[in-house]
From TrEMBL:
Molecular function as annotated in GO: metal ion binding
Organism: Marinomonas spartinae
Record GO biological process: superoxide metabolic process
Family of this protein: Belongs to the Cu-Zn superoxide dismutase family.
Cell membrane is among the record's keywords: no
Keyword vocabulary terms for this entry: Signal
Signal peptide limits: 1-24
Claim: Signal is one of the keywords in the record: yes
Annotated protein name in UniProt: Copper/zinc superoxide dismutase (SODC)
SUPFAM superfamilies registered for this protein in UniProt: Cu,Zn superoxide dismutase-like
Record lineage: Bacteria, Pseudomonadati, Pseudomonadota, Gammaproteobacteria, Oceanospirillales
Coiled coil: none
Amino acid sequence: MMISCNRKMTILGAGLLASTLSFAVNAHSLHAKIDAYPGTKTTVTGHVSVHFDKKDMTVKYNLKGLKPVNDGGLHIHVGTSCKKADKVGGHYFSPKSGGDYWKSAQWVSDSKGRAKGSFRLISGLDYKANLGHAVVIHDASGARIGCGILEK
């Protein structure tokens, strides 16, 4: 009987630990719903998630409505709104990290105009610093075609 009780406690403890770990992982992730960039007639939609580990970030994206078999950029910008194009600003990065690392962050679309993937950056900016900032999708020419705000 004592063994049965201990097993229940162990299972309960493991369940609580798993819940705690799951919460901790979610607490360091931000998500943006991507829609057309303000003032454009593009059809880009999708989601971008940014997961933080100290000063490193992993950016995961799932986009559609892009030009088929094409590429472009995906960057966090200084702006905190996608409502007006002039409020989105330029790339958001820490000067201490050695320059604008966003220049190398790109997506590549398939024959149906979808792009799905991830990349890792050493940004120097953590979860809290990125919360509320705009994620911008650029086409191959550099034009801004999609935008979303990083939220919890």
